Amino acid sequence: SGKADFCAGGDLDRMSKWTSPEQPFEASMAMKKVLRQLELQGKPVVAAINGHALGGGLELALACHARIVINDKRLKLGQPEVKLGIIPAVISPYVIAAIGERYARRYMLTAERFSASEAYRIGLVHEIVPDEAGLDEAVGEIVESLLKNGPRAQGECKALIRVVAGQPIDEATIEETAQRITRVRASVEGKEGLTAFLEKRKPSWAR
Predict the structure, then answer these.
(1) What amino acid positions are annotated as catalytic residues?
(2) pLDDT tens-digit series, residues 44-61
(3) In the β-sheet with 66-70, what is the strand arrangement from edge to edge?
(4) CA atoms in the 13 A half-sphere facing the CB of 101
């Protein structure tokens, strides 16, 4: 509950010893690969934030699909990069997707640390809970909901969001979404889900 870090970010001591521009580039690309793996794998990931999430630590949380945080006044979140003379480049798409350009302009430029309640207010986290017991309960409820759904459909839904987010509702987008639902509806999982609903039974998902 704020006494330890969820993740305090990158190893600054290690960074200070870098001697070539290739090293920060390689580190950034490695981090990007981790985030992309979180995003591209079929299964959703829930972040339970019970301590400071700063810099790359906040980045990890933002790459998850649901984020829950404890409302502890000692717990802080933020992007301190500009205080160090660097920028939160790899994290920026995740930040802007979560809180929009308006709040990103403030917090990416000021490097302010902010509270769990502020993170919830600006939409950076999905839920705020009072303590660790509440955190466990909230995570359990989300996981329980996730397990009721078609696992392949969840992966397809993640891909759908990536494709549709920020796109205009034009003919190309409409055709893309129609093609996706057509493919998924004809899948084994799509057929099982509808059949189970009509037969008033739990679907037999293949996980």
Answers:
(1) 81
(2) 899 999 988 998 888 889
(3) 46-49, 66-70, 127-129
(4) 1
